[in-house]
What we know:
76% helix
Amino acid sequence: MTFIEQIPNELYVLAMSMMPIVELRGAIPLGVSLGFSTLHSTVLSVIGNALIVPVLLAIIEPLFSRMKRLEQLRGFVERLEVRAASKVQNYRKYRLLGLFLLVAVPIPTTGVYTGCIAAVILRIRPRNAAAAIIGGVVAAGAIVFMVTEHILF
């Protein structure tokens, strides 16, 4: 048996839920395709997606600052910030509620990564941002669960 074959399927779901863009929207169906119940897959995905939040909130600002110092990466970071800022404009007035809603809507580019970048741009305290973002993760997980179970749509 190879090393890859020894990795529990739960870790695949956890890892997938931490990936940018895919996040729990892709991890829940992955878990179901691996034979987990929708509930089991959702719980694993929410945990994995929530685990990455404090890490992202701690590293985004210092990482962006360092990347901006490099001529080759400055444009990339600035485009990323502009894109996140444009998504944030509709949510700026409501700050924490807006951050929650940004993450809770389970469509591509509105997950944890965008939420953490938005929190940094809006200068929301990390503890408050983490609470709003993790709340959004739970809501997004519930929505994807209901769609997967054909409760919604």
